[in-house]
Structure formats: C-alpha cells, structure tokens
Amino acid sequence: MNIVRITMILCFITLNFLSNSCSTTSFKAKYRRLIYQHDSISTELNSLNRELESTELELFKTLYELEFLRNTIVKAEADSVVHFYHNYIFNFRRPILALIEPDLNSPFLFPLTVEKIERNWQCPVLWGRLFYFDYNHLGIDLHAREGDTVRAVYDGVIRNYEPANGYGELVAVIEHAYSQKWKDNVLASEFISIYGHIRKEKIRDSTAALQWKNGDRIQRGEIIGFINDDDHNGDGGEHLHFGIRLQTADASKASDGGRWLRGYDNRKGDQLQYFLNPVELYGRYIRFTFDPIDRN
Ligand SMILES: [Zn+2]
Q1: How close is the Cα of 134 to the center of ligand 1, in Å?
Q2: Considering only CA atoms, which of 243, 235, 237 is closest in space to residue 263?
Q3: Is this structure's pTM higher than 0.70?
Q4: Burial, 64: exposed, middle or buried (Cβ in 10 Å; 0-12, 13-18, 19+)?
Q5: Do residues 137 and 70 lie in contact, with contact meaning Cβ atoms separated by under 8 Å?
Q6: Triad 120, 123, 128: Cα angle to 5°
Q7: What is the pLDDT of residues 209-247, one digit of tens each?
Q8: Most buried residue, 15, 49, 86, 278, by CB count within 10 Å?
C-alpha cells in the first residue's frame, strides 16, 4: 500500500517536473524569439528613419530649386505687365508653409504669435510669401488674421510709424542695436526691423489706439501694431510683411531715399546687400510645402 502510494507520488512529481521544464524551455525560446524580433524591428526602424531623413532632405532641396525656378520664370515674364500681375496674384500670393528648425539661442522674438506647431518641433511655422532669391521680395509675409497682435522682435527705437506706399495705413520700423554678430556674419551691430500692413487699433475705429511716435524706445515683446484688414493694408490679403535691413534707419535712408524700408519691387537686386532673410534670426528652413492648408 505504502509502496504504491510512494510510487504514485514520485510519478506525479516527475511528471510535474517534466512538464514544468518543458514549458520553461518553450518560454525561454519564445522570449529569445521576441528579443530577436525586437532587435530586427529596431534595426529596420533605424534604417527607415535614416531613409526618411534623407528623403526629406531631397524633398527640401527639390522644393528649394522649384522655388528658385518659379522666381526665374516670374522674373522673365515680368516684362509683360499682364503676365507680371497674373503671376503676382496666382503664384506669388500662393501661400507657402515653411517649417523652421528653431535656434533656441535666438535672442529675437517672433513678431507674431505662432498658432500652429507641427509634430513635436518647437518651431515657428511660416505661412506666406518667402524671402525671394530674385530679390523682389526682401522680407517674409506671415499669414495672420485681422487684429492679430504684432510685437517688437527686440529692444529698439521707433524710426518710422506712419503710412507708406504699398504698406497701407501703417508701417513700423524699429532700429536696434545688437552688439554681437548673429550666426557668423549675418547681422550687423545695427539693424532695422520692418513691420508692414499693420494698424494702430486692434478693432477698427475703436478709441484704443497705440500712441507710438518716432523716437520712442520700445522693448522686445511690446505691441507695435495689429494686422490690418484687406481693404486698408495697401496690399490685400491679411498678413504681416516682416523685413530685416542691416543698416541704421539714417544709413538706409541715405542709401535708398524713398525706398529705404521697402522690402520688394526692387528688380535690380541692388538692395539685397542690405536685407537679411528674417528666417536667419530664428533658425533655418527645414522644408517647404506649397498650398498647404485650407485658409479657413
Ligand atoms: Zn511682403
């Protein structure tokens, strides 16, 4: 009786042990298989990421070239007034989205509140007309809505706060002194920032209007104006024209007379030496997209 019982117990223990070791072995095998799968997926993911990066770079280069070619074509056709306006309206005004990799050390504030942050880039997203290679547009046009707040990008002195041809009711110019060179040589120690197509009131005909006048000191981040509406901004289409000129206001006036703050309509390109692509203040282009978003 006892022997039978002991044998049964021993059998039971042995079977149990065997089945346990079997399942342990299969778990280990499964574990090793999963680790292997994980490693190979990681490797594949890494190579896909590298491929994506290089494709994005290629895309960026292609769009850059496309932009250049488009400008060349528009310039060539500009001899004909009809063609020029056709292109101006249908090509130049077509919104372009530019994603920017930010320079986090930039001391300069972006003049508009950035509404759209794509992916997890903490970057300004420009939507509008770019700084043109053919020198016809020496600033960037930032898409905005009527009444949007425009802020001084750096401390300075207001050197223009009045209407100007092509800018509508108000174009503001602030003169800055910045003691260091910015990104090697792109910024002189003195420069002006230009804010076109703005107005003094957030809401048209309200009594609360900004009271700035020439000679006033303004701090980085203070409100310089508000986006003007279609009918009064001198250009149509609500936007901010934002330009950077690498001279003082007086030197600019001496160089260009009546055109000193104009960021476009210069077909000879002789002003380029004074104008900086404002994007340089904030980082660098990552990529462009044409016709990116529904305006509404
Ligand atoms: Zn513009």
Answers
A1: 14
A2: 243
A3: no
A4: middle
A5: no
A6: 120
A7: 999 999 999 999 999 999 999 889 887 778 889 999 989
A8: 278
Distance CA 203, CA 210 (A): 11
State in Å: Cα 182 to ligand 1 middle: 23
The alpha carbon torsion through 90, 136, 127, 102 (nearest 10 deg) reads 160
193 CA to middle of ligand 1, Å?
13
DSSP string, 89-146: IIIITS-EEEEEEE-TT--PPPSB------TT----EEEE----TTSSB-SEEEE--T
CA–centroid distance, residue 286 to ligand 1 (Å): 21
Please give the distance, rounded to the nearest whole angstrom, from the Cα atom of residue 217 to the centre of ligand 1: 25
d(CA 76, CA 70): 10
> What value does the CA radius of gyration of the chain take, rounded to a whole number of Å?
31
CA of 139 to the centre of ligand 1 (A): 6
pLDDT at 22: 64
Q: Residue 8's CB: how many other CB atoms inside 10 A?
A: 10
Q: Residue 52 — φ and ψ, nearest 5°?
A: -60, -45
